[in-house]
Amino acid sequence: MSQNPPDLRPDLAPAPQFGSGTRRAGQPALGMVSLGCPKALVDSERILTRLRAEGYAISPDYSGADAVIVNTCGFLDSAKAESLDAIGEALSANGRVIVTGCLGAEPEFITGAHPKVLAVTGPHQYEQVLDAVHRAVPPSPDPFVDLLPASGVSLTPRHYSYLKISEGCNHKCKFCIIPDMRGRLTSRPAHAVVREAEKLVEAGVKELLVISQDTSAYGVDIKHAEDRGHRAHITDLARDLGSLGAWVRLHYVYPYPHVRNLIPLMADGLVLPYLDIPFQHGHPEVLKRMARPAASARTLDEIAAWRSDCPDITLRSTFIVGYPGETEAEFDYLLDWLDEAQLDRVGCFQYENVAGARSSDLPDHIPAELKQERWDRFMEKAQTISEAKLAAKVGKVIDVIVDEVDADAATCRTKGDAPEIDGNLFIDEGHETLKPGDIVTVEVDEAGEYDLWGRIQDA
């Protein structure tokens, strides 16, 4: 049993889970290190699914692998350093490393630090990764032995799965280089998304976590095309997914006006009453310097309207403090904005320069110690809000999904909590018969700063 710390980086996916599995004699095996966001984790799942279909085994450790694939992150300079460290560790432990992912868009950066890597490919370049694997470790399939589950390879627990609906982004935020690495918005056909979701639910998935770089913009690039009874628009897609009987959680939803059309679906129980919206800041001038929509006052009106239509909605967001030029008055405005918005779950970055980002060229960069001081004050404010909101849940009867069970307790999540980045609800009595994926009804009897405790309600 572990409690969720308040400083989890909101750009990180849960740690991938590798099954031990059995390896037939002579079967080639690949290891995988997956870094970065949930979108990268989905890429890792797709790569491993293709490799399993070709007869490769998946090794949970370096020693059992004929080569290792490192799926990198390039979102921040700290993430780039983490990726280089992971590549170095894989080289030291295994010696044969193929690099892919966002940092792969800068091959010279990687080979300059690690010239012995076997190959470097960019993000979602599945064919190039497979080609590199084939060169390094030729396949040796046995069609009578190597069986691939219909749902493919999953790196998350069996009861939840990420569902990526698009790639890329059309925004030009000055602090972000994701569009440079992953390209412009490219939406998947709606019928393909729904079919994947159906297969996941048929395989036992109880929760679908919808992800993209800009979920609200889904389908814009393909003019919301309709095909085989499914329309590529986030409202229609949410309705279609909600009909499958699993929990549906929406991530990375930009606050466009049409987002209000999702709220009735939440109020009706079709999708979870949860919105993950990257506001990034509250002050209009800072938002302008970020090249983001600067209508923070209207955003507060939207939040009020969402809560009016769906009182149980949980709002989570991420923010950047210490952005170049951020004055003390602008930061204080952000704290006041947060007070008024009363967001349920909040993550926060200290601004970092990223090579290639236009924000690096802005004047008036904030000293590191001041960024840290503002981050501390911001998180203190967010913690106070979280503590009060959770205290108000004591005595309520709610449904939770079980993630993990050990001798001490069952670690669960409410409908308002996404894996890893939000809080937990713990059941420490009568939990012995529970198992991951169970959805049970509990009465909340205790609240902390970020987590809840509850007891199972009798059927």
Description of the molecule:
- It is a single chain.
- The protein is of the alpha/beta class and 459 residues long.
- The protein has helices spanning 38-53, 77-93, 107-113, 126-136, 178-182, 190-202, 234-242, 263-267, 284-290, 296-309, 328-341, 368-391, and strands at 29-34, 57-59, 67-72, 97-101, 119-120, 160-164, 166-167, 186-187, 207-211, 226-227, 230-231, 247-250, 274-276, 314-321, 345-350, 397-405, 410-414, 425-427, 439-447, 452-456.
- The chain is 31% helix and 20% strand.
- The strands form six sheets. Strands 2-1-3-4-5 form a five-stranded parallel β-sheet, with helices on both faces.
- The two termini are 25 Å apart.
- The model is unreliable at 144-148 (pLDDT under 50).
